[in-house]
Write a structure and sequence with these properties.
Five copies of one chain form a homopentamer. The first copy, chain A, is α/β, with parallel strands linked by helices. Helix content of chain A is 43%, strand content 14%. Chain A has helices spanning 5-12, 19-30, 47-51, 53-57, 66-76, 85-89, 126-131, 148-164, 188-200, 218-226, 234-244, 262-274, 284-287, 291-305, and strands at 40-44, 80-83, 101-104, 106-107, 121-122, 136-141, 168-173, 205-209, 251-255, 279-281. Chains in contact: A-B, A-C, B-D, C-E, D-E. Chains A, B, C, D, E: The active site is at residues 174, 207.
C-alpha cells in the first residue's frame, strides 16, 4: 500500500532512521481505519501485569483469553496492538500479519513493595520482538524515580539494538517517584518534560498521559508564567506537549487512564486531535467494556480523529 | 508415541514456540501413567536446598540417595522429575532416557539471613540442562519481594535462551516478601496474580500453590466482590487460576506443601481436577513416606486425575 | 582544507592518537569562522534534558525545533554543534556534512530525586556517533560525587572505544556532589583540578566552567598561598587552568552558564582569550535570544577570539 | 597407573562428568601414599591470605617460601596441594607434574571491615588453573552470609566452565554470617547442610569442618530429635555428613582448623575414617610445625587412613 | 643487552610467566643506571589525580608539562616511569622507546566524598598499555576498605589479561579503610600483609610503603611477640616484608611518601637496600624539587643502591 502524503511527511521527520525502522512506522501508520491519516489508535494490554488478572479482566471475562484482544484490535481497525511477551506469544501465530504488534519489553506489577524504587523489569528482548513479527518494542521509563537513570540506560541500549534490527521504539514516559508529588505526575510541565525526555532518548513514538494545568517545578512555573505559555485547555496542553516532542517531529499518543464514561473519552480524543496530537493508546476503556460497546466506542474515536465527530 | 488429541490441543496453545519446545512439552505430557491425558504429576526434590538434608530426608533415609528419587518417579509412572543440578548429575546417566527431567535452575535455602530480600541463587545453566538431557528448566520467582523484578529479568533471559535451545520453562510462581502478609502468600487474588505473571513471563508450565479464600489486595478485593467471582471452594479457586493462566492456554500444576494426611492430598487433587487444573507437583508428601506408601499414594492420585477416584 | 600551522601545532600535542582522531579534531578546529585560529566556539544544546523543554526553549519558541540549532550553528560559523541523540537524529540528514557534530552521550535531568547521587545516564553509544556522522562524543563527569568514580570508568571505556573508531572525546568536567560546597563547584582550585582530571582521563577537548577566586580545599589553599599562584583575575584563572590541562597541551573550552547580559558574555570571552584558553561552549546565551541577536553575539565573540574586539 | 576398584567405584558416582573431570579426580585419588585407597590428604596453604604472613609462617619461617609447601606435600606423599594463584605460580614450573594442584580461586583476608558481609574475592580464573597444570579449582562459599547467594552464583558459573575444560571443583562449604551464631558455624545440622549445599551445587570434592553435637536451627533440631539421628560421636557426625553428601556419592574431606596437639589431630582422622569420610585437608597443623615433625604427623595420618593406626 | 646473572636469577623466580612478561620485567631491570643490579628506581607521577595539579606541580611549575617527567626519568637514568593514561599519551610518541613505561590503570582523587568507601576508578585498559608501548600496568589495591574485595577482583582479571599479552603487573598495595586505624596504615604487620596479598594476587612487582614498628592487629601482635620477629629498625622491617613477598621471590619497591629532607630520603634508601628490598618508587621527592636538585638526589640514590654511599 502506497503511503499517503501525510504519512510520508511524518516519516520524513525520522531522518536518521534506516528503511527497516521507517517501514515499521509506516506499517503502523498505514494500518487500520486511521491508516494514512497520520493519526493512530493503539490497544495496549499490560494491565494483567500492572494490576493483576481480576482487576483487569473480570469486568469482561472474555478478556482473560489473549485471543480476545488481538481480535478486538483487528475488528476495530486499530493501528497496532501492544502487550507483554506471554500475551503476544499466545496469539502471534493465529493472528500473524493481521495487526502490527508492539512487544512491551518491560513491566511493573502491584506486588512490588511500596518502599522499593519505582522501576520495571525487562521481560522480553528485541530478538523476541523479531521472532514474533512485531513492528516495535515498547518500554516504560519513570523520570522522577531513583531508578530513572538506569531505566534510561536500559532503553537506550535496547533502542539502539531494535533500530539496528529494523524495529521502531515506543516509549511510555511516565514521571513517577521520589522527585514528584502525586499531582506532579500529571502536571503539564512534567508532561511536556516527559515528552522531551522520550524524544531525546530517541523514541519513535512517545506515549504520555494527558495533563492538568498544575505546574510542579518552581523553576519551570516561573518560565510558564513569564512566557505566558497557554495551558488553559487540554487541547492547549496537548499542543504544548507536541512542541516538546521536537515541535511535532515525533509521533505522540496519549493514554486514557482508568475506565470512565464514553463522553469523557471522546472529549479527550477531541482535545488530542485539536492540539495536534497523533492519537490515543486506550486499554481499560475498551477491553473492560462488553465487546460490542468497545467496538462502538473505538469506531466513534476513529470518527473523531477523522474529524467527523 | 503419537500425541493424543488432548495433548495436541494443549500443544496448539503454545503457538509461538518452536518444535523443540513443543517436543519437550509433548515428552512430558505423553510420559508415564497420565501420558496423553493432559494431566501431569511431577516429582520435585529441591528440599535439600530449601530445608536442608535432615528435615528433607531423615523421615525416609533411603531418600538421601539421589537415585532413590529417579527410581520413585519412574516406578510411579510420573510425568517428570525436577531437581537441582547436583541431584540430577548424580543419576543422569543411570536413568538416562527413563524419565523427563526438569533442571531446577535457581534455589534458596534456610541459611539466608532473615533480613535479606527474598531471593534465590541461579545454580545451573540452560547448557547444563541440555548436557544432562533435560526437557525443561525450572525457575522460582518471588512476586512481592524487593528482589522480584530482578528475578523476573533473570528468568526472562534464561527462558529466551532455553526456548531457543528447545527446552520448556517451568516457573514456580511463589508470591513472598515485603509486599505480602503471611496469609497473603496463599490468598486467591495473589495466587491468580502469580499465575498471570508467570504466563506473561512466557512460562510453558506454571507452578502455583493452592489458595485460600482470603483476598489480600484491597483494590483486588473490591473487584472480586463487585464481580462476584466464585472463590468459595478449592475447585472454584483452581478454576479462577486457570482463567488467569490465559484462560487455560497454559499448563498449571499445583504444589502440595508440607507433608500431610493422604485424604487431604486426595482432596487437593480432586479440586485441581474439578477446577480444570493440569495436575500436581508433589514432593514431601511422597518422598518423606516409605516407598511403598508413596507409590500407593501416587497411584491413587493418578486414578483421581484419570477420573477413577 | 590544509590545516594552518596553529592547528598543526595543536594536533601535534595529541601524540598518541591515531589519524582518525586527529582528523576529527582537525575538522572541528578548521571549521567555521574561527577555523584555523586554534580557537573554537561550540553550540551545546542539552538543556532540554537538563532543565526541561519550557525552561530551555520557551523564551525563543523557534528553538523547540531541533533544526533551529543546526541552522544557528551553521549560520553563525561555529566550530561544532553538541547535542543528545534525539536532537541530532532529528536533523542529522538534513544538515549532513554542514557542521561537525558532538554526540552528548550521557545526560542528567531535573527530575532526579534530590537525595540521589549526582549522576547521569548513558543515553547514546559510540556507534550511534559513527552512524550519525559525528566527529566526537561528549561526556559529563561529576568529580566530587559519590558516583564520580563510576562515571570515570564509564568515560574511560567509552573514550577507548571512540578513539579506536576515530572519534575525539570531549569531557564536560563539572565538579559537583557531596564532597563540595556550592561555592566550591566554581572555586579555582576545583576548576583546575577538574581540567587535570579530564586531561588524565584522556579527553581531547576539556570543557570546564569559568571560576571564582574562592579556594575550596584546605590542603590546596595552603599551596596556592605559599606558591603565590595568581588567581586574581578571570584571565589569570584561565591561564592556571590551561597549566592544569597539561600546560596547554589539551584544548580547553569554557562554558558560559545561565543567560546573562551581552557585555558579561564578552568579558568572559576576552578573559578566556587573554588567559590562553581555546574558546567557548555557549548554549543558553545564544539559543534563548532571538536568532538575529544570537547571530550578532556570536559574531562579536568570533571577533573577540580573533583579537579584533 | 591403573585405577583401583575402590577408585573406579568412586569415579562411577560422578556419572554426569566428562572424562576430563574424571581423569582429574582420578589423578588426585591415585596420587601419593593414599593413592588408590579412596582416602585423601590435601595440603591447603591459603592462610597467608586469610590470616596474613606472620601469623601463618613465622612459627616455621621456612614456610614463607612457596617452594616449601610443594616440597612438603610431595615428600609427605599427599594427594594434592591447594593454594592461591601467587603461591602456585611461584613453584608451578619447578614442581610441574610432581603433585596434583588445586587452584584456590577465591580468598578472604583479615583486613575486611568487620561490618562488611562475609564474602571472598575471586582472585584467579579457570584458565589460570589450566595454564598452571592444576587438576581442580577450589572455591569457598559462606552459606548463612548475606553474600551467600551471590557466592553460589559465582561458583556455579565457574564450576560449569571448569568442568567443561576438564577440571574438578572442590567447594570449601563454610557456613558463616548473619544467619548463624558462633556455635552454629560448627553445629552438626549446619555441617550436614553445608555438605548438602556443596553437593547440590555440583562440587566434586566437598570440604567441610568437623562438627559438634550442637543443633542450630530449631526446625532441624526437632527432626534430629524425632528421628533420633545419631550425632553423639564425631564418627557418627561424619557419617551423617556423608549421608548429606548424596549418601556418600560425593568425596568429602574434613578440615582440621587451628594448630593443636598431635593426638587430637589423630583422633579427628580416626573419626573421619570410622564415619566413612574420605580424608583430611590439613594446613596449619602441618606447615606450622617443623618439617620433620610435620612429615611424621602426615605419615601417621596416612597410617590411620590405611587402617594401620 | 644480555641480562646479568642477578637479573636472570630474579627472572627465574617468575617461573609461571611467559617470555612476554619476563621480557617486560627484564627491560625494566636492565634499564638505566641501576640496570643489571637487581635494584630499581621508578618515577611515579599520579599525584595530579590524587592531590590535584597545584598541590602536585606548583612547587616546580615546569612539572605541569607531561614531557617534564619523561625527560626527568630518562636523564636521571631510572628504570621506569609510571603515570595515568593522559600523562603517558601526552609524551608517548616523543619519548617512544627511551624509558620503560608503567600505565597506572586505576586512580583515586581528593574530591571523593569522605564517607564513600576507599576505592579507585579504572581509568585505562590493558590494550591502552599495549598501544602506548608500556612494559607493565600499575594498579592500586586498598586492603582494609569495604571496596577491597572488589578491587582484588578487578586487578585479578586485569593481571590475567595483561600477563597473557606480555605485560607485567605492578600492584600498589596500600592498606586503607574502615578496618584500619591511621597508624595501622603504616604498621609493620599491615605492611607485610600488604606485600603478601599483592604477591598472592600475582603481582610481578609489589609497591608498599615503608613501615613503623607499630603492630595493628591483636592476633598478629601476639605472634610477632611470641616469635620475636625483629621489627626494631627500618632495615629489619624491610627484610620482614621481603619474607612476606614469597621470601624474596617477588620484586618489592618502597614508596617515599610526601616531600621531605634529602637525608631522610637517603636513610630510607639505605634501609631498603640493607633489608634486601629492590628499590624505590619516588615521586614528589623528585619532581617537586628543582630539576637539578632532583637529578642530584636521584644520582645519590643510585649510588646508595649500588652500595657506593
Amino acid at each position: 500500500m502506497k503511503a499517503t502524503r501525510t504519512v510520508q511527511k511524518i516519516l520524513s521527520y525520522y531522518e536518521a532512521d534506516n528503511p527497516g525502522v521507517k517501514g515499521a512506522l509506516c506499517r503502523m501508520l498505514m494500518h487500520g481505519k486511521l491508516g494514512g491519516t497520520g493519526k493512530m489508535i493503539i490497544l495496549p494490554v499490560d494491565q494483567g501485569f500492572e494490576h493483576g488478572p481480576a482487576r483487569s479482566f473480570a469486568p469482561n471475562p472474555a478478556a482473560y483469553d489473549p485471543h480476545y484482544h488481538f481480535q478486538l484490535a483487528i475488528d476495530a481497525g486499530l493501528n497496532a496492538y501492544a502487550a507483554p511477551l506471554g500475551m503476544l506469544e499466545a496469539g502471534a501465530d493465529t493472528f500473524a500479519g493481521q495487526i502490527p504488534m508492539i512487544l512491551k519489553a518491560n513491566s511493573a506489577n502491584s506486588l512490588i513493595p511500596a518502599e522499593a524504587p519505582k522501576d520495571q523489569a525487562i521481560t522480553a528482548s528485541v530478538d523476541d520482538a523479531l521472532r514474533l513479527g512485531c513492528s516495535a518494542i515498547g518500554f516504560t521509563i519513570y523520570p522522577g524515580s531513583s531508578a530513572g537513570l538506569e531505566m534510561f540506560e536500559e532503553i537506550s541500549e535496547m533502542r539502539e539494538e531494535a533500530a539496528a534490527k529494523g524495529l521502531a521504539t515506543v516509549i511510555w514516559s511516565y514521571p513517577r517517584g521520589e522527585a514528584l508529588s502525586k499531582d506532579g505526575e500529571t502536571a503539564i510541565d512534567i508532561a511536556a518534560y516527559a515528552a522531551q525526555i522520550a524524544a531525546l532518548l530517541g523514541a519513535h513514538i512517545i506515549k504520555i498521559k494527558l495533563s492538568t494545568d498544575h505546574l510542579e517545578l518552581p523553576e519551570a512555573k516561573k518560565v510558564y508564567e513569564e512566557q505566558k505559555i497557554d495551558i488553559s485547555t487540554q487541547a492547549a496542553r496537548v499542543r504544548h506537549c507536541m512542541q516538546a516532542a521536537f515541535n511535532g517531529r515525533r509521533i505522540v499518543v496519549f493514554s486514557g487512564g482508568a475506565k470512565k464514561g464514553a463522553s469523557s473519552v471522546y472529549d479527550d480524543a477531541r482535545a488530542i486531535r485539536d492540539g495536534g496530537g497523533n492519537g490515543s493508546i486506550i486499554g481499560r476503556n475498551t477491553f473492560q467494556r462488553p465487546r460490542e460497546e468497545a467496538l462502538k466506542m473505538l469506531s466513534d474515536l476513529i470518527d473523531i480523529y477523522k474529524g467527523k465527530a
